[in-house]
Amino acid sequence: MVFDGFGRALPGRRGGAETGRGSVDLIARFQGLCDAVLFAVECSEDDDRLGALDSVLKPWVRAQIASHEGSMSWCDNNQDVALAVRAVLAIAPQYADLRRELFSDRHHVGRPEAPWRKVGPTLAVRSPLRVWRRRPQYALVALAPDLQVPEARTWEFRVFTAVDEGAGTKQVTTTHRVMTFRTEKHWDVTVQVSPDFEEQRELYEELGYAFTALGVSARLAGIYDPDGGRSTPPAERPPS
Length: 240
Prior knowledge:
alpha+beta, 7-stranded mixed β-sheet, 7 helices, globular
């Protein structure tokens, strides 16, 4: 049951069911709050434009808002309602702060080298300074988990590059498939990528920094196990 500010029960709510006008009004008001948060998000997107990174940031933040839209279904008292309201309200200012930092990383001289920034548990991005020269932007994005293989996860490491085309430029996105597997001992996961990606050492290092930003202790197989099981004859291996 949900109560008003004077301790009086709002009508029609039993066991989470929507049965009365009071609860319906509360749901409508909360949906209005979610719409207002989306409007604030859109304003921050118009204020700090981030180019190709918006291809991952915009869907992510809208999914976050949508995940809260049904929150009134589990609220049984004022404390639950307040918790749900605070959770959705926090999205817009946190997102605006993130965009402001990424914009400054990209355009403002005199700052430290742009770090990888954690957006959420399964998304990290980096937007290096491009004042002196064109530099790509990066994103590490987790795909939906495979429920049949819970110990493994597939990610995409995306590189966004501006290339000349006629009188202007166009954005090109290069996507590298990344697999992680749960490990024991000192690492959270072992990371495996294609041999071609391993050879692009600058990008391979960026991948390691991306996992670090997410708080994931990642063992990059190409660094810690360069043979990767790819049968080097024993006679050719250096002596231990």
